[in-house]
């Protein structure tokens, strides 16, 4: 009997899950056909059907990372400053799933920085992220929740703050618990809003 | 004639320079004996004398990164808030040399996160960095230049801010020129000092 479309889709999902698991535990440096095959309990021969080259595997992994990032659930609770806070919370590694995807993002920076096309693509993605933050900063300013000042400038600062917090939290999850990450972000937003560093 | 100690030292310096150059352009993912040999204009055979295994090469590269970080020139101009600013400026990729070393640091995160011992070592280094910042935050508070508040909390935020700014600047040096990086840092420090986000 020929295999059905459902079998094929199920197998693709298994392959994706295995690639993701390898990236989340070993990073891009550890992403090999052999490691994915072991994770999947399959032969490397089967995998060469999906990924004829190492480059094909890396490209698939990068696509998977982007899909998972785009499709992740997002907070949509507030407006103004609360909406800015939601967008920044969405980036932080506050859940095991968000730890995995941030781990994979940080891991992908090495490959991305070595490849001019990929590096330009990442620069464009981060610029889009800043633009989304900028519009939320401007809305918070309109509501009088943030002082006036170039919203693009404030958005670039906010993106820097959360990216660096991601890195710190990945290396030191004991110090940077989810609670502490949220506390640091709220301290940052309070300082932006004009309260200075003076919390805690 | 036997080769002198001076020859040996000169050769070691050449090897170090070649390893550094490969890391700065291709990252850890591109760090191979073959790439270092090509950079050095030598045979891979010669290099196996220095690095019998890939692991030995990676360990050497990590040591080199640490040495270069520890021995880099540092700003020592101010005290209080100015000293905090100096310490944060020392981290940013404001010169070609600092771009290279930050590029290598960011690249090393992939390898470090996949290795529990190395990851713990990085967490320790970042904790030491935060401690140095904390003492400068406390000094700025004593001078009345920063509002009261847990200095460790403020130091963790400041470290996050500059680490994320490093990543942004590496991916998008056209947007994040040295001038813009300094401007963003000064905006951050002004907000901490109680001015809110309102510059620009």
UniProtKB/TrEMBL annotation, chains A, B:
PROSITE patterns: HTH_TETR_1 (PS01081), HTH_TETR_2 (PS50977). This is TetR/AcrR family transcriptional regulator. It comes from Streptomyces tendae. Residues 9-69 form the HTH tetR-type domain. Residues 32-51 bind DNA. The keyword Electron transport does not apply. The lineage of its organism: Bacteria, Bacillati, Actinomycetota, Actinomycetes, Kitasatosporales. The keyword Lipid metabolism does not apply. Gene3D superfamilies: Tetracycline Repressor, domain 2. Keywords: DNA-binding, Repressor, Transcription, Transcription regulation. Transmembrane segments: none annotated. It comes from the Bacteria.
């Amino acid at each position: 009997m020929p295999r059905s479309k459902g079998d094929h889709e199920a197998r693709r999902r298994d392959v994706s899950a295995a690639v993701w698991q390898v990236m989340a535990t070993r990073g891009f440096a550890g992403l090999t056909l052999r490691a994915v095959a072991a994770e999947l309990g399959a032969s490397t021969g089967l995998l060469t059907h999906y990924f004829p080259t190492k480059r094909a595997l890396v490209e698939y992994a990068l696509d998977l990372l982007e899909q998972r990032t785009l499709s992740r659930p997002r907070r949509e609770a507030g407006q103004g400053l609360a909406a800015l806070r939601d967008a920044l919370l969405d980036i932080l590694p506050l859940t095991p799933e968000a730890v995995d995807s941030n781990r994979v993002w940080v891991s992908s920076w090495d490959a991305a920085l070595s490849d001019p096309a990929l590096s330009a693509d990442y620069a464009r993605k981060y610029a889009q992220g800043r633009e989304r933050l900028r519009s939320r900063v401007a809305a918070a300013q309109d509501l009088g929740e943030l002082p006036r000042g170039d919203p693009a400038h404030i958005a670039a600062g906010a993106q820097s703050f959360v990216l660096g917090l991601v890195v710190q939290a990945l290396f030191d999850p004991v110090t940077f618990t989810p609670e502490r990450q949220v506390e640091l972000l709220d301290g940052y937003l309070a300082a932006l809003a004009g309260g200075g560093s003076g919390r805690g």
